[in-house]
Every structure is written in C-alpha cells, then in structure tokens.
Amino acid sequence: MNLQEWSEKLLTAMINADRSAAAEIISRALAAGNDSRMVIAEILDPAIVKLGRLWEEESMSLAQNFVAAKIAEDALMRCIPVYEERLHNKGAVVIGNIEDDFHSLGRRAVGLFLGAAGWDVHDLGNDVPAEQFLEKAVEVNASLIGVSAMMQTTALNIRKLRNLIDAQGHTGRIKLAVGGAVFNWRPDLVAAVGGDGTARNAVGADELFLRLQSEAQKGVKP
Ligand code: B12
To answer: Which pTM does this prediction carry?
Structure first.
C-alpha cells in the first residue's frame, strides 16, 4: 500500500470513529518500514487536512469532528516511541498554543519533530497566557518560543507576547516563532502579530528554529 492509500484508510477510520482501525493503520504503516516523520507528514497530516475540508463543507458535525480529532491525536502519540534517541542537544525551546486556542494537534506534531531533531522541548499545552510563555523561556534559558494558533481570533493574542518580550527587554534575544494553518492562509498575519518567522508544517520547524537561534545569538532585532 502506498502512503496515499494509508492516509485515505486512516481518514475513513477517523470519520467512522474507529479508534482501533486507526491504531492498526499507524502500526502497520510503521511496521512496513516507514519512518515516523514520514507517517506523520504523509499519512496523518493529509488525513487531518481532508477532515478539515469535510467540516468546512459541513459534511460533519462538531461532535463527529471532535471524535475524529481525538483519534488523530491517538494516532500521533503512537508515532512517539518509535523516535530514535536524540543525537545532540540544540538547546531549549518553549512551545504552546496561545491563550484561548485548543487546537493541539499541530503543536504536538511540531514538538515531536523538534524533540526528534535534538531540541529540549518544553511544551506548555493549550490556552497559554503570554506571561507564562515568557516566564518559562527565562526559567529554562530558551532563546526560542514557538507559538501555535489555528484561528484568526486567537492568532491576534500572540501580539500580547510580542509586546511583553519587547517590554521586558528581550527583543532580539528571545525569538518568537509562530505557526498554525491560519498563518499559511494569511502570511501577512506573521508580521501583524509580531512573529519573527514561521514554517508551513512540523517538518520545517527545525530549520526555522536553527535560523532563529543563530539570529538570537547575534541579537538580531526584528
Ligand atoms: C481538528 C480541528 C478542531 C478540533 C481540535 C482538536 C485538537 N486536539 O487539536 C476541535 C473539534 C476541538 C476544534 C474546535 C474548534 N474549532 Co477547529 N478545526 C480543526 C481543523 C478541522 C483541523 C485542525 C488541525 O488539527 N489540523 C492538522 C494539524 C496537524 O495542522 P496544523 O494545526 O495546521 O499544524 C501544522 C502547521 O500549521 C504547523 N504548525 C502548527 N503550529 C505551529 C507552531 C509553530 C511555531 C510552527 C513553526 C509551525 C506550526 O505544523 C503543524 C504540523 O504540520 C481545522 C480546519 C483546518 N482546515 O485546519 C478547524 C478550524 C481551525 N477550527 C475552527 C473553529 C472555528 C473551531 C471552533 C471555534 C468551533 C466551535 N464552533 O466551537 C472550536 C474552537 C476551539 C478553540 N478555542 O481553540 C476554524 C477556525 C476559523 C478561523 N478562520 O479562525 C477552522 C479553520 C475550521 C473552519 N473553517 O471553520 N477544531
């Protein structure tokens, strides 16, 4: 079976709220020799994107979508133990969903990819106030904060964090990465909320964070 076929099967299992079938698909895809990153990027991610379209077309209820998203979360978690141990420590990063945002799937995928790439990931979870992001970054000496937001309304809450970073004198030394589908639809939002950069997906997060880390070390201001 090719990756697209696995992904279609997974989508069907998610729509049918069939948790065990979804788990089986992920296990089989991994057992067939597909790398975890590939399984997330090529099987899970496209299935969730299609799920989003079905919801937008109103072919699914919110409750159905919620259950399907829970199954996707389970499937994502199944990919974790397969990750190899870290090769090196690139440094501490703090990630989370901004205040009022509960779309955890994308953030978790980003955390997984960053962890696998050697970053020391501090994941604060959903609905994180700006103050908490900055307090944690200072506590763990992180020069990078990665904030996830999926909705136009919640993305605007990131501005509070930008203002706080600047007000407390961390401009240029703590970099603010932003991401979530809303930034892919509206790239202008990255600058509007005061982000220092974004990546379209979890696969691109490592490269983005490396670039921002190097800018932070030089104290490059936005
Ligand atoms: C699943 C889902 C949910 C689930 C979330 C479950 C969960 N545990 O995550 C549930 C059902 C709970 C939900 C609830 C709601 N949702 Co919703 N949801 C979605 C849906 C279908 C998919 C989102 C998703 O998980 N995508 C898959 C992940 C893997 O992709 P991703 O998040 O984009 O992340 C990737 C990249 O963006 C990037 N990335 C993500 N974060 C970061 C961070 C950094 C730093 C970087 C570099 C990269 C990065 O990497 C990730 C992995 O590749 C979208 C529709 C869509 N087309 O996106 C709507 C959508 C986002 N939801 C929407 C809405 C309106 C809501 C609700 C308000 C619905 C309601 N009426 O109650 C609530 C609000 C909840 C809240 N306050 O947050 C709207 C937002 C509209 C808008 N334009 O603002 C959307 C667009 C659907 C729609 N068109 O109406 N939702």
So the answer is: 0.86
Residue 61 Cα, ligand 1 centroid: separation in angstroms? 15
83 lines ligand 1 (CB under 6 A): no
pLDDT in tens, 89-101: 899 999 999 999 9
- Residue (of 4, 78, 86) closest to 45 by Cα position: 4
Scanning the structure block, which residue is given the tokens 């990665």? Answer: 146
Ligand 1 pocket, 91 CB below 6 A? no
Give the DSSP letter of residue 85. Answer: P
Q: What CATH number is given for 3-82 in this structure?
A: 1.10.1240.10
Domain 91-218 architecture: 3-Layer(aba) Sandwich (3.40)
Select from 103, 126, 145 the residue to mutate for testing ligand 1; criterion: most ligand atoms less than 8 Å from CB: 103
